[in-house]
User: Fold this.
Amino acid sequence: MRRRQALALGAGLAAPLALPGAARAAAGGQRVLRYAFPVAESGFDPAQISDTYSRTVTAHIFEALYGYDHLARPPKVVPLTADGLPEVSDDFRRWTFKVRPGIFFADDPAFKGQPRELTAADFVFAIKRYADPAVKSPLWASVEDWRMPGLAALRRHSLDRKTPFDYDAPVEGLRVLDRYRFELRFELPRPRFIDSMAVSDLFGGVAREVVLAYGDKIAEHPVGTGPFRLAQWRRSSLIVLERNPAYRERSWDCSPTADDAEGQAMAAKLRGRRLPLLDRVEISIIEEAQPRWLSFLNGQHDYIDRLPPEFIEVAMPGGRVAPHLAKQGVRGVVTLVSDVTFTYFNMDDPVVGGLAPRQVALRRAISLATDVQREIRLVRRGMAIPAQSPVMPHLTGYDPAFKSEMSEYNPARAKALLELHGYVDRDGDGWRERPDGQPLLLQIATQPDQQSRQLNELRKKDLDAVGIRVEFKTAKWPENLKAGRSGKLQIWALASGASGGDGQGMITRYFGPQAGNQNIARFRLPALDAIHERMTVLPDGRERLQLFEQAKKIAVAYMPYKLHTHRLVADMMKPGLAGWRRPLFWNEWWHFVDAEPGPGAA
Assistant:
């Protein structure tokens, strides 16, 4: 079943606040949204990125066939560049899509001064790019798992012969039928495949001539059909998007439910206006929490995405906007989001990896020694709930009644497990050795930001208490991601957010063929792989939910990931920002909101 929950907390608008950012926008006569990312982007080529922040940008430059209604709860898939719903046949094995005529790419020198219409071939080309070995896409394993006849073989041909990938070679499972129609065929049923075609940041149409024009610089030159285009980029510092002048005639038309008073008010104000409502979006990269918070307070930014937990009691004590901010018209919203924070163990590592009982015992002992409630209380300031399983809130397969060892804090039991399996202190120095007598030293990758430092302090206290020595290796987040995907990290903590309404995405993190990609832990277990395969082809229903339960129990038993929390997120915004609602699991929303170009907006 699908469970979705959002809690909106705030105060009524008082006297509007004339912020410096708004004043600058008024001087230029533009509607501008300014805020900050806490993590640097990696690039803007959909086939080469996997991080949330880069994907948030590309979601506003490229467009998939389908998208999600901005206000509908539960979420509703709607056509975006598609002309209606797909034709589905052969027990969900054959999907035929039609592209709406008259949609054009943003102007770019690659088109030599000619308008360039979006066609079926652009979606086929975009999908083929994931298979091109030269692209080195981190998401190829996900596309390969679609099992389109002929695509993996075309990739192998390129690899084996060391020749360029042949984009013109016919692929049985991926065919252009005419200018506006294309067909995808699968070896197995894909009942929920439309969800994959509703991810603009990954599966939007890509023009082949743009890729040819920019070559290995394509990540710096994204060109799509979306509402915005990239205007300026200073890597790891500033990202500026501006309205795409070639964007088609499209009006704000979202569908809140009848009992959604807030959504109905948004609709009454914005329905019928041409998209995008904003002229410009300016994103700064501010990794440290305090400067990010101050940039909002000082009016340099109009919106703070994911208020740092250390400021929650100052900004929203008791879940309500602080009086001094409410008087200025600042609003705040708290949402239980579809994400999970976790620590992964590299299953290929000789110390923490493996499926032998002693290796499983070590990971489970580390989990039992980890005080998640203290993490929530001290670092996250109460803005999270303990995670019991990989499946996130609001998704198919999530069950709030499911409880597991994943949230248990029991250092005494952790010590007993370690001693039972030979992790004991042999030389009396206070630290345990491995069963073979070698030193037991954990190496945890981390980042240089304040929250990471706070989490590291807790990790060290927890592990010191059970006699496990740990050291931290610090690097920037993109560097850790690259090292993690290549299997060079032993342990790393990160988070994952859902990209669709089905919970299988997190079960995919345990799927053997995805090792090194979505399965960053490199966990391989035939029993789990069989469950994943069966879940993929089954329609939603009782049998599939039972498979979710089995997968959750395996995840807890083998512990390749120590799951920590599902986060509560607080967002705050200045007066004059209209139409905002946090998406549950999609990244595109900038074009649906309006930032008034001067003070006095409601």
Q: What stands out?
A: The radius of gyration is 25 Å. The longest strand covers residues 561-573.
